[in-house]
Amino acid sequence: MAEFDTTTEVVVAAEKVRDAGFTETDAFSPFPIHEMDEALGIKRTVLPYLVFIGGVAGLLIGLGLQYYTHVVEYPIIVGGRPHFSLPAFVPPAYEMTILLASFTAVFGMLFLNGLPKPYHPVFNVPRFNLASREKFFLLIKKDDPKFDYDETKAFMEDLNPQEVFDVDE
Amino acid sequence: MNTDTYNAPKSLNRWQSIALGAGGIGVIVWLVGYLTGNEEEALRGWLLGFIFWAGIAIGGLGILMLQYVTGGAWGVVIRRVAEACAKTIPYVGLLFIPIGLGVYKLYEFANAPATDKIIAWRGWYMDPPWWAFRAFVYFVLFSIMAYLLSSWGAKQDASKDYEESAKWLSKATRFSGPSIVIFVLLVTFASVDWMMTLEPHWFSTMWGFLFTAGWALSCFCFSVAILAYFSDKPPLDRVLGKRHFHDIGKLMLALVMVWAYFNFSQYLIIWSGNLTEETPFYVVRSKGGWGAMGLALIVLHFAFPFLILLMQDFKRKAKWLASLAIFILIMRLIDMFYIIGPSPKLGELKQHLLEVPFRVTPWDFAGPIAVGGIWLFIFIWHLRQRPLVPLNDPFFENAIKHGKGH
User: Fold this and answer.
1) Does residue A118 belong to any structural domain of this protein?
2) Is residue A145, in this structure, part of any structural domain at all?
3) Count of H helices and E strands in chain B?
4) How far is CA A70 from CA A98, B100, B269, B367, in A?
5) Is this complex's ipTM strictly greater than 0.85?
6) Domain tally, chain A
7) Which residues of chain A fall below pLDDT 70?
């Protein structure tokens, strides 16, 4: 893991890491860096598609639930209207859509991020606490296919960092 | 401060001539219709065109005030387009004159017999002179708001340093907050006066919001089309970026949803209330050709743009977004026709029709083209008078940077 002083330095370094072919990487900073996704070659999340599927599922469940209760299981005439009265079904179906879409968004985000995660080795590096204050860190994991301890360490020294750390597991 | 002038590209002149030509032809065709004894049909066509284009102009004033209140990069890039829309409002008032003069040939409330208790009970409020005077007041108030905001914008453009520029911005912001409240009230009164009165016995409390949202959507779509036209031409190709269109696309999505939400609310309230005064509006509009048109509006004015606008990549491509914006604008016009077309013509009210044949006249095309041509001519004229972006705005540099982000 390498420590950097400024956003520009960490983004430039991240681009070099990406161009060197590393894929099992991560970056840590006190605030979001919009360029980082591209610099580190992070793929776009599939979350929006999951949320859409969640929303469609909510819509179908909402309509299905009302259809089953009002038409199949317990048909009762309300206000002289047909059992299947779509306008009245829309608000609950809409609410179900929102509910399942937002559940998918929140829990899907946690799941895709691997959260909650009680233990992460990077915290074994004492200076890593500064990632929430003023320093920027780049991490290359040892399960990266291109990872070789000596070479990778030398490569990271070349990125012009403040310091390079070994992360104990 | 900024040395670029950001004047409108020359190619706009050609569009201005085209607009004037189309408007001229539209007016001639419309006049032929009016003078050959189709006065009522012609006036309905003119009202259709007026309400559609006035919606863009008045919506422009709303967007202008909204972006001053909220701030943000999308507001900086859309400001001058919305401002040019708003500045056309006095001329929109002139385009209202055929409707104001034709009130007795267009609206049933102006001709109702004294035996019509519902209209009689409204008394002097619905007397045509007082009705016309109200329209005059709406236009005066809208114009004052547009004039003040655009004059402060001009002073900001001329300002020499940061403090002076920030002073005019904060003045516009403080003016816009309270004015939005007055604006929504005016839109409510205006939409009731001009459109709801087509159905003199019918009423809906969603009407004002429906038009506020609809007109904001109209102006947004119109602005997207204009900005997309500028996006690959100097000088704005240096300014407009993917993220600007992404942001504006998100707001378009929101407004499409708000329009659908208000429309459905109105339908649901009337459907569940099931009262004889209210339901004929939808009974008429759910039969025959009108029914098909209503379904088409649900699909093409809401579902289709909604699903398309969910896609991130779509919103980031200026030309794609502009194509959808123009599509929504056409739907806005059809939505207005869906309100005007089936409404009772003179003398039909007392028949209490529950089925109206699908009727579309040549003047329903001539009206929007006539009003639109004239309006676009005036709009482009205003757009060319000023730089296309508020180049001395304190947030201008930031707004450019924001757009160029990934």
Assistant:
1) no
2) yes
3) 18, 0
4) 22, 51, 20, 48
5) no
6) 2
7) none
| pLDDT value at residue B405 | 61
Contact A88 B272 (CB under 8 A): yes
Expressed as residue numbers, the domain containing A149 is: 2-44+136-164
Write A12-15 long-range contacts (CB < 8 A, 24+): A13/A138, A13/A159, A13/A160, A13/A161, A14/A39, A14/A40, A14/A138, A15/A39
Residue A31 in any domain: the answer is yes
Structural contact between residues B376 and B13, judged by C-beta atoms closer than 8 angstroms: no
Per-residue pLDDT band at B144 (split at 50, 70, 90): very high
- Provide the CA A164 distance to its chain's centre, in angstroms: 27
B406, A34: Cβ pair inside 8 Å?
yes
Quickly list H helices, B96-241. Answer: 97-101, 103-106, 117-122, 128-158, 162-194, 207-230
Kindly tell me the sign of the dihedral angle through the C-alpha atoms of A59, A65, A71, A75: negative
Question: Which residues of chain B are within 8 Å of residue A79 when distances are taken between CB atoms?
Answer: 272, 274
A35 within some domain: yes
Q: Indicate if A38 and A52 belong to the same structural domain.
A: no
User: Mean pLDDT across the stretch B85-97?
Assistant: 93
Domain match, A94 and A105 both: yes
Q: What pTM was computed for the model?
A: 0.85
CB contacts of B267 in chain A (<8 Å) are 87
